[in-house]
From TrEMBL:
Its EC number is 7.2.2.12. Keywords: ATP-binding, Cell membrane, Membrane, Metal-binding, Nucleotide-binding, Translocase, Transmembrane, Transmembrane helix. The keyword Cytoplasm does not apply. Residues 150-249 form the P-type ATPase A domain. It comes from Lutibacter aestuarii. NCBIfam families: ATPase-IB2_Cd, ATPase-IB_hvy, ATPase_P-type. This is P-type Zn(2+) transporter. The chain crosses the membrane at residues 37-59, 268-288, 300-321, 598-618, 624-643. Belongs to the cation transport ATPase (P-type) (TC 3.A.3) family. Type IB subfamily. It comes from the Bacteria. Residues 1-25 are annotated as: Disordered. It catalyses: Zn(2+)(in) + ATP + H2O = Zn(2+)(out) + ADP + phosphate + H(+).
Length: 651
């Protein structure tokens, strides 16, 4: 059955845009728009109440044509838009819509003289549509909140001055300026010394993010402290925010299997209901001794009102809207409702190591010296490593002591082994065990047990010490694994391109039993394909979205970690965690399960109540008022249930 918006909601003005200056008129505009939306329903409600009161007190003049006309006028504000939509659908060849059901049911009520009930059914249906519209708007509002993040202008440096232009007109390599409180309009590299940014709209994290010079910044972040300058690295259409906006706006287009089934079901269900209503009207003539056409027509009309599938067609998509909105509010982007469903079935989680459970940044873990003070030893080491651009060298250069009086000269690289040079008149060797052995320097046996990256140093042909460099676990890595076990994900595995010894050590720290290291991207893919041969395994893979793209695509659910700045993550993954927090995966699972639970609650509620009242209606034990509850009442309950997702908290 095709679901369309009733014209009642079209009364809303095309724009409720606020004034750019603060003149106090905004509230009036909003209130006026709200009043116009509900005005037809208010008129019908007041006239219905007056009519019922006049009937109740049996007022003499409220008879015959006056009574019919009164209820007819009460019906028009809410009934005419529905009848009109039903007629439009019929002309397009789509006969069996909810508009058609409601129209023939309420017009039929007028034909048999049940005027108040005819008005009441249509009034409550219209109010239900209005509430539905408000609920959908609210759910979509969370999903599309990022639209407000779209920057409107950029201050670009041209001809010796800053000029305000549209972000679409800024080229790669140009310099832009962002004042305090403004949104960064384009992706780029920070040119200023440091910046404090609010990335809440992009990542779901309210805590300000402080970054330093040459760090990446993303469009949509808000500058908090001082004027900053940024060098643009992406055109606006290629920026992270533009891609995410496109992703978010299209997320609801991918229907879940449940949603698709209900819509297909409604297309078959609605004509069956119409034919059954016809049968309820005429078939009793052949089986009942005292057949009264009016009574059986009334039962058929009740049957039509009860069986209208709006509660299902409205509340199920709304449930998924709510789930998608709640996820985006928490910095998790699902590419569609189908992946919300898929996430609920996951029982096997495979993850990359570097950048997923570790920070992907080398850091000094241990310093051991032989015959030297640590600070002096590190000055020799830093003087040498200052000549290198290797990531390990960069980690060593972050040591707290800075030896500006230590200078390295005659530095040469020994291919595949390390560096050799002179520091303050002493010969210094810095590198691996092969470099030490080549120069006949004995290395302590304790280094054999170290699995992490190790930098050995010798000064004047004597072993002086070593530094252990290791990737650091993310703050929430351990609690993530514990939380995954609690939500029922028992089968967890690490697949990494890093050394197997390091991978096994990280797995032990995290209490993960299965881990393999030293893998190429195709090796990871083969591992996942092997797991998929068991049909009981429903696999989610978490990776960085670049090297892991093949596995992300092959998994039942591909999850990109920290995918905000990764083109491949956004293109390949099904779910994007906009921060580097693996714990968000647990939250994604919880949100998915809550969404599915609410959707099935609504399905059971709708079918259960309708089945009971249908039986009562066919047996003459239910009136139009029960029918209204079974249709509109259940729809409203289902909507309220779906809206709960907007208020839920997932720890």
């Amino acid at each position: 059955m095709k679901k369309k918006k009733v014209n009642l909601r079209d009364l809303k003005p095309k724009s409720t845009k606020q004034h750019s200056h603060n003149d106090g008129h905004n509230h009036g505009i909003v209130n006026s728009a709200t009043f116009k939306i509900y005005f037809p329903a208010i008129v019908s409600f007041l006239m219905l109440m007056i009519g019922i009161a006049l009937d109740y007190f049996n007022v003499a003049f409220f008879k015959d044509w006056l009574r019919i006309n009164w209820y007819g006028i009460a019906y028009l504000p809410v009934g005419f838009p529905v009848v009109k939509e039903g007629w439009k659908s019929i002309k397009k060849g789509d006969v069996f819509t909810e508009f058609f059901l409601m129209s023939i049911a309420t017009i039929g009520a007028f034909v048999i003289g049940e005027y108040p009930e005819g008005v009441a059914v249509m009034l409550f249906y219209a109010v239900g549509e209005l509430f539905q519209g408000a609920a959908v708007k609210r759910a979509k509002g969370n999903i599309k909140a990022l639209l407000d993040v779209r920057p409107k202008e950029a201050n670009v440096f041209r001809n010796g001055d800053y000029t305000s232009v549209s972000p679409e007109d800024v080229n790669i390599g140009e310099k832009i300026q962002i004042r305090v409180g403004e949104k960064i309009p384009l992706d780029g590299i920070l040119l200023s010394v440091k910046a404090s940014l609010n990335t809440a709209a992009l990542t779901g994290e309210s805590k300000p993010d402080t970054i330093t010079k040459n760090a990446k910044v993303y469009a949509g972040s808000i500058n908090l402290e001082s004027v900053i300058e940024v060098e643009v690295t992406n055109k606006f259409e290629d920026s992270s925010i533009a891609r995410i906006l496109d992703l978010v706006q299209n997320a609801t287009a991918r229907k879940s299997k449940t949603e698709l089934f209900i819509r297909q079901f409604a297309r078959i269900y609605t004509p069956i209901v119409v034919y059954l209503a016809i049968a309820v009207t005429f078939l009793p003539y052949f089986f009942v001794e005292e057949y009264i056409f009016r009574d059986w027509l009334y039962r058929a009309l009740i049957f039509l009102v009860i069986s209208c599938p709006c509660a299902l067609v409205i509340s199920i998509p709304l449930g998924y809207f709510g789930g998608l909105g709640a996820a985006s509010k928490n910095g998790i982007l699902f590419k569609g409702a189908s992946f919300l469903d898929a996430m609920t079935k996951i029982n096997t989680l495979v993850m990359d190591k570097t950048g997923t459970v570790t920070k992907g940044v080398f850091k000094i873990k241990e310093i051991k010296t032989v015959g030297w003070e640590e600070s002096e030893f590190m000055k020799f080491l830093m003087a040498m490593e200052g000549q290198s651009t290797h990531p390990i060298a960069k980690a060593i250069m972050k040591y707290k002591e800075v030896g500006k009086d230590f200078k390295a000269v005659e530095v040469s690289e020994v291919a595949g082994k390390g560096l050799k040079g002179i520091v303050n008149g002493k010969i210094v060797l810095v590198g691996n065990k092969a470099l030490m052995h080549t120069n006949n320097i004995d290395v302590p046996t304790e280094t054999e047990a170290i699995v992490e990256s190790i930098v050995l140093a010798a000064i004047d042909n004597k072993f002086a010490g070593y530094v252990v460099i290791a990737d650091e676990l993310k703050e929430d890595a351990k609690e993530t694994i514990t939380a995954l076990h609690k939500v029922g994900i028992k089968n967890i595995m690490i697949l990494s391109g890093d050394k197997d010894s390091i991978t096994q050590q990280i797995a032990n720290e995290l209490n993960i039993e299965k881990a393999r290291g030293g893998l190429l991207p195709e090796d990871k893919l083969n591992e996942v394909e092997t797991l998929k041969r068991n049909p009981e395994n429903k696999i989610a893979f978490i990776g960085d979205g670049i090297n892991d793209a093949p596995v992300l695509a092959a998994s039942d659910v591909g999850i990109a970690m920290g995918g905000l700045g990764s083109d491949v993550a956004i293109e390949t993954a099904d779910v994007i965690i906009q921060t580097d927090q693996p714990s968000k995966v647990v939250k994604a699972i919880k949100i998915s399960r809550s969404t599915r639970k609410i959707v099935w609650q609504n399905i059971i509620l709708a079918f259960g109540v309708k089945a009971i009242v249908l039986i009562l209606g066919a047996g003459g034990l239910a009136t139009m008022w029960e029918a209204v509850f079974a249709d509109v009442g259940v729809a409203l309950l289902a909507i309220l249930n779906a809206v709960r997702l907007q208020r839920m908290k997932w720890s």
